[in-house]
Amino acid sequence: MSLDKLESRFTEKLISLQKQGVCKGHEKIITCIKPASKGFGPRYQIDGYAGRSFLRMNSNSYLGMSMHPSVIKAETEAAHQWGTSPGAVRFISGSYLPHKELESKLAEFHGRESAMLFSAAYATMMGVLPQLISEDTLVVSDELNHSCIINAMRLAQPPKKEVYAHANIPELENLLQIHSGQFKRVCVVTDGVFSMRGDHAQIDAITACCRRYEARYEEGIISVVDDSHGVGAFGASGRGTEEITGGQADILVGTLGKALGVNGGYVVARAVIIDYLRETSPFYIYSNPIAPAEAAAARAALNILDSQEGLQLLEKLRHYSIFLRTGLERLGFETLPGEHPIVPLFVRDSHQTAALAAHLFAHNILVTGLNHPVVPRGQEEIRLQISAEHTEQDLRYLLDILAGFRSASRSCN
């Protein structure tokens, strides 16, 4: 069989990934979620680790919406009414009332004219960015942008791509200046919150820079922001990096699968942009949408976020984010300032990062260790992610275990 000839090559590739330290290996299968008790948040049980319950510090469910009774109720009721699948793509009888209601709510929430759902946030960026790039478009990207942006640029095959140093606005401005008159259109694309570090783009400065130079390009400059880690987790009302910075991108991509706790991705923009994308984006045209029940659940989560309860959850999240950062600094660990629930713990050494991740796992704490080449050499880290489901007791337990590792490391040295 033809696969016999490829098997050895694939095996070599897997071995290479293992040697680089980037092989993800076997997935840990969650078999049970134990509810919060005795001052601690939920605990997770994993297949193959009988009798152990884990504190989960690597979840994108920032507000705990996936377990919120109102969100579960909304999805359950909608599943009974609409079934478990749309059974078709959007333009072939796959558009249901919950899809349109959610899109209207998302547009209103972000202060845009229109919104459009995709099957996932990754698919959203892959489906949106190439449709904005012509054979005469310069694309300018932050060096720490997410994989979905990088692969969307590869798919688009722009005639020219430039990458500016992370969050370096003067360098972005210089690129827009030196390419003036060479292209009809520019697309400036960035993450809102950067997933590895929890820091954020200065959207206000980026859009101001675009305005200063757009007259030099016949078709102007488009700003595109993927704020999947920002929406619902950042800003006083959860409107993400735009709220924090006071800027507004031309096109904003978000997700339903992180703070909103459901599934799917979306884009918001002016109505004509969304109309154009509905007619041209293959990731939208040829893929089934999220289930109507998921759309109903996401709308319920969005309604909670946009309420007094949501404000309280966001305040709790900010408090815990500051609490953990302060605790890490007190122990002598390096982190970044901020209020976002992604809290990086910089180790800056691959072996030590792996050792710390193993130490935390041995003490029933799930974290994500990031080593080179996933992050640049010297920026190896443990990425900690806070949820409103956590409690202070959870964070104190985490800090106690980290203190033990710190003490043991000093003793060895």
Describe this structure in words.
This protein has 413 residues and is α/β, with parallel strands linked by helices. The chain has two domains: 25-56 and 309-412, Aspartate Aminotransferase, domain 1 (Alpha-Beta Complex), CATH 3.90.1150.10; 69-305, Aspartate Aminotransferase, domain 2, CATH 3.40.640. 44% of the residues lie in helices and 16% in strands. It has helices at residues 2-20, 69-82, 90-94, 97-110, 121-128, 147-156, 169-178, 203-213, 241-245, 271-280, 282-285, 292-305, 308-330, 350-362, 392-412, and strands at 30-34, 43-46, 55-56, 114-118, 137-142, 160-164, 185-191, 221-226, 251-255, 265-269, 342-346, 365-366, 368-370, 381-385. The strands form four sheets. The protein has a seven-stranded mixed sheet with strand order 4-10-9-8-7-5-6, sandwiched between helices. Strands 11-14-13 form a three-stranded antiparallel sheet, with helices on one face. The model has no long low-confidence stretch (mean pLDDT 95).
Give the total of domains: 2
Series of secondary-structure elements, N-terminal to C-terminal: HEEEHHHEHEHEHEHEHEEHHHHEHEEEH
What value does the Rg take, in angstroms? 22 Å
Number of strands: 14
